[in-house]
Protein 1
Amino acid sequence: MNSDSDLQIAGDILEVPHLLQAPREHPATVAEFVGLARSVAADRSQWEHLVRYDATSRWYHRLRTGPGYEVWLLSWVPGQGSGPHDHGRSCGVLTVLEGALTERTERGTRVLGAGSQRVFAPGYVHDVVNDALEPAVSLHVYHPGLTEMPMHDSPRCAAVVPVP
């Protein structure tokens, strides 16, 4: 019969280095990509000085790359939009850093304010536009890196229908 005196513990399992998983240098899961986007968003010194506004087209800058992913910084002046599109075989995380963007999908329309995040899978069709009166800045993480952005003639995106 076992008793507490029969049980001997070799020590705290967290103290045994060979049993611990090494922290990853680069993200590999959806949660880690969301975390990457949040950490970049929180550190304005990584991106704020790079932002430019272009009245003729959306401005973008590749901020970072890693094994199989890219991080992009985009600015949107009032009225600029992406047009209905998907991201090919890439998954993504869209984070609004400043201002507000409107996202239209087949499920409706939602306004994304600073700090809002959207996670999407391959084939996700949306139209993103700055409907506000102030410029906006967003951060986009793609995995794998963005190689195509098919445009959609007939959007599967709804008209203005509020989404809670």
Protein 2
Amino acid sequence: MADGPWGAEFAQARGEASPYERKVLTDGVVTAAELSDSHRRVQSCMHDGGFDLEWSEENTYEVTPSDGSALTEGVDAALEKTRLACLDRWDHSITYLFTETRRNPEKQDDAKITAACLRTSGLVGPDYTERRWRSEHDTGTFSFDEYDPAAVQCRLDPLGLWRQG
């Protein structure tokens, strides 16, 4: 994969990476075990900074203060500082590259594969184009329910390679 469709992204990420992340990215592949290790390290780092972080199946996360307090302006600033420091050290690009190479390993045109998925799912009609998807994606306003399970499936796994939606 180092020279494959995602080779340029891996090379750029290695150039901006911490020593830990550079080691993970060297072979041009992020494995599930490497992703899990990275996520554990981010969680530990956040916990050391006073925050609990929980990862979702979609590789997004939710953060709360460890002491159960509410997010206030001061706490929010500390959270952001801690979050950036932890991600810079343990996961600046790992989650992104794992997710993107899994959902689109050949790096096909995202509009093409997503629009095709939406048409196949029946969320949009046969006349729904890649151009329309790009326009809607750019504005964040979709002509379909973006939270519909089929739409989520198309966003996360448009080629149907790994996720059972």
Protein 3
Amino acid sequence: MNTAIRELRFSPNPQARSLALGRSFLVALIYENPSSTYVMNIQLGILDILRPAGMELLVHPCQGDSATFVKDVQTLIERQRLAGVILPPPYQRTNG
């Protein structure tokens, strides 16, 4: 069987794996910074960690000052069944 997998260059479908195992292999990067260089550098760093772990990255721009921001993020998490969310600044806020 392993020979056939190698010869056919089989690669598991992430969505099928997610359904079969009951968990997602998808992490979302939710960002607001419009700088393409900033976003690209963050993506490359995240992908260096996610790829060896068999995870995929969903990139999702948002407006943090939107009245529906939290609800929109919650909806995204639920619909995509995300394994995780990365919120770079300015979304990280401190109390005070």
